[in-house]
Write a structure and sequence with these properties.
2 domains, alpha/beta, 235 residues
Length: 235
């Protein structure tokens, strides 16, 4: 299992993962820190890399994923999850939404499971290389992501944008170059890891140099906090 909270610097995605963890940790604390004993559903949990963030607040963490996973709750796309309506204080989804074809079902199920005024905390990509798992269908603008989530009965806070265009253009070039270098016999893996380590401070510098509005509108990752509307006439 990859350590997504503190990935090693020689992994190609260490910088975006560390940025996500940096913002996700206080977001979980502010959204769920006072809700000990309540249930938070991780919808598309993978190997549950962020479970510890919830358990430190005594949150009941419910992991849900596709057939073939080790999740506690297995779901079939398009079918209701075996989670009681209005039973969860929170639904979370990290780097999953781009892999979902049926957004109506996915966001609709998140809305159904939540209590009135429950929180949805979700991260996904503004830009990123193609990475099917098992599919890869979308990228979002900041405004498009807000409208997408709001259209399913949520009040959406301003997204947190991370990894701006100077950083992600450098990162993508390093990822492509690293993939080529890894094909070199014997030393390819070591050289690719070294490239990731050497490039890391330049990614940090690139983000610091990027104007705030550019980073806000052109980021690789957006983290959204949304609240289920108590009454929603559109649903």
């Amino acid at each position: 299992m990859k350590n997504r909270l503190r990935p090693p610097f020689w992994t190609h995605d260490a910088y975006p993962l560390r940025q996500l963890a940096k913002h996700l940790t206080p977001t979980v604390a502010s959204s769920f820190g006072s809700l000990a004993g309540e249930t938070v559903v991780d919808f598309g949990c993978g190997d549950s890399p962020y479970q510890a963030l919830f358990e430190r607040h005594a949150i009941r963490y419910l992991d849900c994923d596709l057939p073939g996973s080790n999740a506690s709750v297995i779901f079939e796309p398009g079918q209701p999850l075996p989670v009681e309506t209005g039973s969860a204080a929170g639904v979370v989804s990290f780097q999953v939404l781009e892999h979902v074809w049926d957004l109506e079902w996915y966001l609709g199920e998140a809305h159904r499971m939540l209590k009135a005024n429950g929180r949805l905390v979700l991260s996904t990509h503004g830009v990123w290389p193609y990475h099917p798992h098992p599919g890869d269908f979308r990228r979002w603008t900041r405004t498009g992501l807000v409208k997408e989530i709001a259209s399913h009965g949520f009040t959406v806070e301003e997204p947190i944008a991370m990894v701006g265009p100077l950083a992600w253009t450098m990162l993508f070039q390093c990822m492509a170059l690293g993939a080529m270098i890894r094909k070199i016999p014997l030393l390819g893996g070591v050289l690719a890891d070294a490239l990731a380590v050497v490039s890391y401070p330049f990614l940090v510098l690139g983000d610091r140099m990027t104007p705030a509005q550019w980073r806000k509108d052109n980021s690789a990752i957006y983290l959204v906090v949304a609240t289920k509307k108590e009454h929603d006439d559109s649903l």
